[in-house]
Design brief:
It is found in: Endoplasmic reticulum membrane; Microsome membrane. This protein has a domain of 350 residues: Cytochrome P450 (Cytochrome p450). The chain is built from 19 helices and nine strands. Bound molecules: protoporphyrin IX containing FE and 2-acetamido-2-deoxy-beta-D-glucopyranose (4 copies).
Length: 508
């Protein structure tokens, strides 16, 4: 009897709590969706696996009308910013009120959670400053040949699987994911891997595990729950495995005095000397003088950054190249322009692809820009770090509230980009430029924009050029990507299928 009463009481309390939570925006007369679904808010369809998180947020964007609205992410009230100018204000001018992402972070007990993406406040700022030189154009130039080699291995692989005569269908996304993962394994983890020939190597197997579960969403949606799970022992096996790999590689390099021009080398320099040299020829991990600078960057920190670089880098880089090929295959005139540009520039450089040659392909730049408009990572996130009155209104966003900027919605809004579903690289050409630049943020904006913007651009462009240079892409009818319901980003269901054939060797 008492048990039953207790049960009823608890049930009522829970009901009240949820009801109360879901009246958060109404109580503040903040604009919000009148028919909110209890108990998952705008993520109901995500929980039911009927939509991906990106599409659910896209739908919420399309449905609403006001420049900002209160939404519910599971139980948490959050603000969606629909207006590009307001988004800019928040990301750039008013950054000091929104400097964190509010993701799971446990600095004391889980050092591996201290990555650049999740870190907050001053710790984030310090690390960002320290890591920035790693991504300078001269450092990237020095690493170019590594990406170039991996690109060649991708071409070799395609040559193996394609028939000598005629064409065959390939999942170009899958191929480019392998390319992107090998670049990260090589440049960031210092490994000598070829996943095209050895698909079951240690690195691939480890990172493959990471793609299979949903902890990522939990880290975003319920950071405090994630924290307790980790404390209870749900340690991240992938992260631990990657740390082991790094430890071995670092020890090996130090023991044998090996200097490789890659990011791991620079992070070792940071670990041993306290900073990364501005001098582009200095890849040494030994300090000339003891500066007495406090050394807080440890092996765990290298592993945490390596891991987040893997998460942030592989899907984004491969998607940009794969979706470009997918779109070019549907637009024969654009395809011809892209192919001609590649041929012309290569002819000018004696057939040699180099970092500089890659800079001379303006049309491909437009294509990649347009791809990243139509297929961005679907949302940016911030946390309000101090009470903020939305300019020109009486509405206050309270400290601690998550902010969502639905990039997919903004990038596909006809208000900002005419005919948004039409793939039109020329909309970005300087002579045309008929779009609202504030609405275009494929790499985010403000002090927390993508730290690896250059690297992402170079590697996706390189992958694209390798394919256009060596293969013919068969033209196909118009179609749209089908987005997988289980993903956060734009994960194409069944891959990105295109038909390729070997290019007839030019006769000399
Ligand atoms: C075409 C490729 C890429 C795209 C489209 C892309 C896009 C983005 C976006 C949209 C953000 C969030 C920015 C914001 O919140 O304002 C971001 C952040 C970030 N990206 Fe990328 N990214 C790419 C490649 C990479 C690569 C290759 C790496 C690592 C090697 C990387 C590492 C990061 C990191 C560490 C952050 C967090 C920065 C911070 O909070 O300080 N990204 N990226
Ligand atoms: C996603 O779920 C919806 C609703 O259950 C279904 O109609 C749709 O086919 C699914 N899409 C994919 C790509 O699985
Ligand atoms: C480890 O964390 C990543 C993202 O941070 C996630 O994708 C992966 O599923 C996690 N792995 C395990 C075993 O929890
Ligand atoms: C290389 O750079 C590191 C970090 O800035 C510095 O400590 C070291 O003294 C430099 N080495 C040389 C040979 O200049
Ligand atoms: C570091 O040492 C090298 C050789 O020992 C020397 O050439 C260089 O000038 C030194 N750099 C600094 C910053 O002291």
């Amino acid at each position: 009897m008492i048990a039953l009463l207790l049960f009823l009481l608890l049930g009522t309390l829970l009901f009240w709590f949820i009801k109360h939570q879901y009246s958060y925006w109404n109580r503040r007369s903040f604009p919000c969706d009148p028919d909110t679904n209890i108990p998952y808010g705008c993520l109901t369809s995500v929980v039911k696996h009927e939509k991906s998180m990106g599409v659910a947020l896209y739908d919420a964007y399309v449905k609403a009308k006001s420049p900002f609205i209160g939404i519910y992410l599971l139980f948490r009230p959050a603000v969606m910013i629909r207006d590009a100018e307001l988004a800019h204000q928040i990301l750039i001018q008013d950054f000091t009120s929104f400097h964190d992402r509010g993701l799971y972070l446990d600095e004391k007990r889980d050092r591996m959670s201290c990555n650049l993406f999740s870190l907050r406040g001053q710790r984030w700022r310090t690390l960002r400053q320290k890591l920035t030189p790693t991504f300078s154009s001269s450092k990237l130039k020095a690493m170019f040949h590594t990406s170039d080699d991996i690109g060649d291995k991708m071409v070799e692989h395609l040559n193996k699987i394609l028939p000598d005569e005629g064409r065959a269908e390939v999942d170009i996304k899958d191929i480019l994911v392998t390319y992107a993962i090998d670049i990260i394994g090589s440049v960031i983890f210092g490994l000598d891997i070829n996943s095209f020939e050895e698909p079951k190597n240690k690195f691939r197997c480890l990172v493959r595990q990471a793609r299979r579960n949903n902890l990522l969403m939990l880290i975003f949606l319920c950071p405090s729950v994630a924290k307790y799970l980790v404390r209870l022992g749900f340690k991240n096996k992938t992260a631990i495995g990657l740390r082991e790999i790094l430890k071995d590689t670092i020890e090996y390099r130090e023991k044998h005095n090996i200097v490789r021009k890659d990011m791991l080398q620079l992070m070792m320099q940071l670990m041993n000397t306290g900073k990364i040299a501005e001098d582009d020829d200095n890849w040494s991990t030994k300090a000339n003088t003891t500066t007495g600078e406090e050394n807080e960057f440890t092996l765990d920190d290298i592993a945490a950054q390596g891991f987040i670089f893997y998460i942030a880098g592989q899907d984004s880089t491969s998607s940009a190249a794969a979706f470009t090929i997918f779109e070019l295959a549907q637009n024969p005139d654009l395809l011809a322009r892209a192919q001609n540009e590649v041929q012309e520039v290569l002819a000018r450089h004696n057939g040699q692809l180099s970092y500089d040659a890659l800079q001379e392909m303006p049309f491909l730049d437009l294509c990649l820009q347009e791809t990243m408009r139509k297929y961005p990572f679907p949302f940016l996130s911030r946390e309000c770090t101090r009470d903020y009155t939305i300019p020109g209104t009486q509405h206050v966003i309270e400290k601690g509230t998550p902010i969502v900027i639905p990039l997919l919605g903004i990038h596909r809004d006809p208000h900002y980009f005419t005919n948004p579903m039409i793939y039109d690289p020329d909309r970005f050409s300087p002579s045309n430029a008929n779009y609202n630049p504030n609405a275009y943020m494929p790499f985010g904006a403000g002090p927390r924009h993508c730290i690896a913007l250059r690297m992402g651009k170079i590697n996706s462009k390189l992958g694209l050029v390798k394919i256009l240079q060596n293969f013919d892409v068969e033209v196909m009818g118009k179609r749209e990507i089908i987005i997988d319901n289980h993903s956060a980003g734009i994960q194409p269901k069944g891959g990105v299928k295109v038909r390729l054939s070997k290019r007839a060797k030019p006769c000399h």
